[in-house]
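Many introductory courses stop at the sequence. We go one step further.
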Amino acid sequence: MSLLNPRVLVGLVVSVICLVFVLRQVNFAELVETLGRTNLWWVALTVIQLIPAMWLKAYRWRLFFPDQAAAKRAALLPALYIGYMVNTVAPLRMGELVRAYLVGHHDRLGVSTAVATIVLEKLFDVGSLIVIFVILAGLAPLPDWANAAAIATGLGLAVGVAGTICLVVAEQRVLDLIRFFEKRFPIIDRMQVSNLAASFVDGLRSIQSPRTLFWVVVWSAVLWLGAAMTLAFGFLAVGISLTPEMVFFLLVVTNLGMAVPSAPGYVGVYHALVVVGLAVFGVPETSALSAAIVLHAAVFGFFLVGGLFYLWRGRFSLAQLITGARGTEQAAH
């Protein structure tokens, strides 16, 4: 992936700006001292609980496939680790396409199907975060901008759910309407919205079973509770105890905020989001940044080691996977 790619350059610039922003606000001597007192036992707990979380992520991912029996035979867990590892070292969230390539190509489940399941996975995660945000805004005192954001995202989720229902109930009519606009607006045609919508509906059919949908919701809730524990353990590692509302607010801010362009591994962006998110509760910038550094190193280090292990075991090369991912992107369109 060339550094001259405009999207790559934008991500690098955003990360640099975020790094400058946080570094200008911290006391470096205090930061080094705080990091030096890091409790490695809490760091170990942070990493250990990621192991069942990754297994559960792979299990939930399987539920999104129309043919769950074939997905069960697929190497979803290795693909997940490798995808997260690639996201850590490569730009443009290339890891998502890498895991679609690994599952869709090598396990013959179909590239378009694999991409659709990942899209569904992301939409469920975003929806879960918005629900958490709305509930939190109703229970905890948040600043006006956070309450306004909760209302806006909640309305956005409601519109998205309504649109999804319309798409499922009147699929052909909605697709015909999209194609009507595609013929008249070249930008919509280039985005191939109708193809994306059709793939999305195909993916939705896999979770139309009430039983499957129930377990997707349950395991999504468990996964986000686990993610909250990861944040809490990471802060305890540097001697900071967060209240539940602080943990869940930070969970929402970091995960939704990391959707912006960034350098590989969300460097800078993640750290700035932690600092800004905890400033709402009066946590000093230096303390927040020290925890962000520990969490980032522990979590993404775990992804890197796990991904490299499965990369070695599967005898893949990173260049091969990136090339395959680019082909997956073209096939998905």
